[in-house]
Amino acid sequence: MKRFAAAAAAAVGTGVLAACATPPTGTSEPATSTDTPVAAPTASGGAAPDTPTPSVGAEPTAPAWPTVSAETDELGDPLTADQAINSYNNFYEFTFSKEGVAQLAKDFQTHPWSIEVGGLVTNPRTLDLADLLAYSMQERIYRMRCVEAWSMVIPWIGFPLAKLLAEVEPTEEAQYVRFETLYDPEQMPNQRGGTFPFPYVEGLRLDEAMHDLTILAMGLYGKPLTPQTGAPIRLVVPWKYGFKSIKSIVKIDLVKEMPETTWSSVTPSEYGFYANVNPNVPHPRWSQATERRIGESGRRKTLLFNGYEDEVASLYEGMDLKVWF
Ligand code: MTE
Questions:
Q1: Which CATH superfamily is domain 4-316 in?
Q2: Rounded distance, CA 230 to CA 233, Å?
Q3: In which residue ranges of the chain is pLDDT below 70?
Q4: Ligand 1 atom 12: residue of nearest CA
Q5: What is the residue with the minimal CA distance to atom 22 of ligand 1?
Q6: For the residues of 73-113, what is the DSSP string, one character each?
């Protein structure tokens, strides 16, 4: 069993914008300071138990999640520094500047919070933070590859989306899952005016959403998500470009037709619905063959499906990945 799975079992509008706004050689890559790795937490040295359910009141306290169980991903590559993960962000609701998100989002209210799950389901539900934190949390160390050709290795804490979907019981008709981020222009400055279509919307085919690698993350590096990383809850789909991993989700709907998503509606020629990481399908404006791992110098080869080919290639059998990009 590969280590991301082992860890899981053991643990607890515009033409100028891009989904990850600049091309890979752009100047907005992190400054040297954010590139410098800080010491990763010490490995816990063994299997961590399922995390206890934290007690959650009106203002939830930080859950007692375990610190990370490994210092590398299953390919042996080191985790990206916590500080880099938290200071180099794409969250367009706040700003198009990666280095500006953390400061602008610092007072973002992430409690109380709830997610409405509905559409083509037998048991629609509204889950508040306590309901979400009650899921058995697992650690998943995943690579995240931005379409802009930079990447990180992130120790997420979360739970399989499949668990939540099974509870709401999608009907026979349901074929896709549509996700929506909070729309709150008072708190999210970039939602005031402008040309970018908010709320941010993403989608998955139902079998992609039910895949065990697909999680709803509520933490990373053993701590709750910060506003800039998508608090209190975000999607993580590690074999797809980062823009599919929608942040600060308030709504999940099971639907029949492929949903219109933010990036595929803003620039359909550049961003498809599937957005599977693929070194053989270049972005119209840059190659996807290589990437820059944050914290490293030089470039490394991009892996098909971001290195999760064994787990997910069967989902796309018979599909031309150049057409369904
Ligand atoms: N979700 C929302 N709601 N708004 C966004 O702008 N950006 C996406 C994705 N999720 C985005 C979002 C993009 S382009 C990327 S690469 C990842 O979040 C970045 O996640 P990170 O900032 O935690 O690295």
A1: Oxidoreductase, molybdopterin-binding domain (3.90.420.10)
A2: 6
A3: 1, 3-63
A4: 246
A5: 89
A6: -TTSPBPPPHHHHTTS--BTTTBS-GGGHHHHTTT----S-
Q: How far is the CA of 234 from the centre of ligand 1 (A)?
A: 9
Residue 20: predicted pLDDT: 57
Give the count of beta carbons closer than 10 Å to the beta carbon of residue 220. 28
The continuous run of DSSP H or E covering 41 comes out as none
Please state, in angstroms and rounded to a whole number, the distance separating the CA atoms of residues 37 and 153.
Answer: 12
Check: CB of residue 193 under 8 Å from CB of residue 108. no
pTM of the model: 0.87
Q: Which residue has the CA at smallest separation from atom 5 of ligand 1? A: 91
Rounded distance from Cα 96 to ligand 1 centre (Å): 11
Percent helix, strand, coil in the chain, to 5, is: 20, 25, 55
Neighbour tally for 299: CB within 10 Å: 14
Q: What is the pLDDT of residues 69-109, one digit of tens each?
A: 999 999 999 999 999 999 999 999 999 999 999 999 999 99
Ligand 1 atom having least distance to the Cα of 90: 22
Please choose from 20, 245, 263, 294 the residue to mutate so as to test ligand 1's pocket, defined by most ligand atoms within 8 A of CB: 245
Which residues pair with residue 212 across a beta bridge?
none
Q: What percent of the chain has pLDDT over 90?
A: 78
Q: What is the pLDDT of residue 60?
A: 57
Give the atom of ligand 1 at the shortest distance from the alpha carbon of 98. Answer: 22
Any idea what DSSP says for residue 316? Answer: G
Site residues for ligand 1, CB cut-off 6 Å: 19-20, 89-93, 146, 181, 200, 229-230, 242-243, 245-248
